[in-house]
Write a structure and sequence with these properties.
Elements: H1 2-48, H2 56-80, H3 84-95, H4 98-121, H5 123-132, H6 134-139
């Protein structure tokens, strides 16, 4: 009975550790690919399709898809098929690595500030667009 409980506890702890590393990998992957995806995507798109296929929406989609899916997938494969004790020790090191925690905090603060300040910077242009095309702003949430 106690052997089954110990095996279940190790399996459950390994699943939680793997989930922690997948979330962390998605965050770190998104941060890295925010820098790397732009030149890679622009080079690929211009060489393959030309300049007419470059849009801001496609650049942003390439950034988060490559970062989140790539980082999360890599960490899942790395953590799910590793020794549970090794994954546990990696999680303890990652949880108490203050440089990494501080960097994540600064990234979160920066993203929140930019999310608030970016619309404020373009507010005048948005009002002009909404006055010229009132129906577009009315139905923008549906598209």
């Amino acid at each position: 009975m106690s052997d089954n409980f110990a095996v279940a506890a190790i399996t459950q702890a390994h699943a939680v550790d793997t989930e922690f590393f997948v979330r962390r990998g998605m965050t770190k992957g998104y941060q890295a690919m925010s820098i790397l995806a732009l030149p890679i995507y622009l080079t690929f798109t211009i060489s393959r399709f030309g300049r007419s296929h470059i849009t801001v929406n496609r650049i942003l989609r390439a950034t988060w898809v490559s970062g989140a899916a790539g980082g999360g997938g890599f960490e899942y494969l790395r953590s799910a098929y590793s020794n549970p004790e090794h994954v546990r020790s990696r999680r303890i090191v990652a949880a108490y690595n203050m440089n990494s925690v501080r960097a994540d905090d600064h990234a979160t603060i920066g993203s929140l500030l930019f999310a608030v300040l970016a619309p404020a910077l373009f507010w005048k242009r948005a009002n002009v667009f909404n006055r010229q095309y009132p129906l577009v702003s009315l139905f923008q949430s549906y598209y």
